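Hi support team,

I'm opening this ticket because the web form for multi-chain structure prediction keeps timing out on my end. I have pasted the exact lines I submitted so you can reproduce it. The total is 341 residues across two entries, so I didn't expect it to be a heavy job. Is there a limit I'm missing, or should I split the entries? Thanks in advance, R.K.
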Amino acid sequence: MRLDVLKALNAARRARRAGVMVTRFSDGDQRFVEASAIAADPLADALETALRMGKSGSVQVDGADYFLTVQAPPPRLTLIGAVHISQALAPMARIAGLDPTIIDPRTAFATPERFPDTPVIAEWPEEALAAAPLDRYTAVCLLTHDPKIDDPALIAALKSDCFYIGALGSKKTHAKRIERMRAQGFDEQALARIHAPIGLDIGAVSPAEIAVSVIGEIVAALRKKPRRSETAAP
Amino acid sequence: MLTREDDVLEAAEAWRDSGREVAIATVVETWGSAPRPVGSHLVIDADGNFLGSVSGGCVEGAVVEEAAEVIASGSSRMLEFGVADETAWRVGLSCGGRIRVYVEKLN
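Hello R.K., no limit was hit. The queue was backed up. Here is the completed structure from your submission:
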């Protein structure tokens, strides 16, 4: 592997940009193609397919064998609410390969003591999400039960193309939430993106069990649905 | 320690930048119930230190040995592992799968 090609791949990952590394088996010829440059590449169709599926693999084009290493940004998990469930969800997320961040403007909750290993941003979601916008490789969980905090984050999530939106609360709470979002102008298709009540139905009771059900639902959203094309508008 | 594929490729760059000789092994094809998916990496240095996984532990030892030769010679190799009856528990996949692993030096 060429060090300069590896460095290009690693730099793209750090900047949360997608791309594909192409290796020709016959002679080891190698290049890294950024997602934005795929259309101009001789293997454009194969690269586009690999990136859309998010899967590395071997391909044969015009009699030559290639290996495609897909570089998709590591999925992030943005938790709105430095609450009890977040204390279980953040470490589990990390083990499952998601990078968690917690946002909660209530400084009594958002303390490093409660979340020793997770970045905690003690700001309102509008400010925090303006500084670090949600992208298609981000999952968002609304966990505060407080519309003052959850709703601005939900609006930001619905305007983004994040791959998962989950909202804690009963069906009744969610019905009221849906009404507020309709008043904000979101249509049924947009509102159908919200997973609520949050998590898979596994009868979870404790915060840790709820965290398991939420992680399961996020993994399903990440792996089961085909990714939308990189060129699709958010 | 749990590592992700990303960490493995970051480590490959960091190891090389610190002057170590490095090989990267990649699972390029699998058949049957292979333990690690296509695209999984193992990074190996000339002293046999390694990070990552191509088989969940079954054939790492053999890959590390081959990697030492790839580092020494500079030429890439394609390895194939599968169940080899009586040797299955030595070097092979006890799960019954087969994998192809591409080992290349980082230059």
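A quick check on our side: The interface with chain B takes residues 1-3, 6-7, 9-10, 13, 23, 25, 28, 55-58, 67, 69-70, 74, 95, 97 of chain A (CB under 8 Å). Let us know if the file doesn't open in your viewer.
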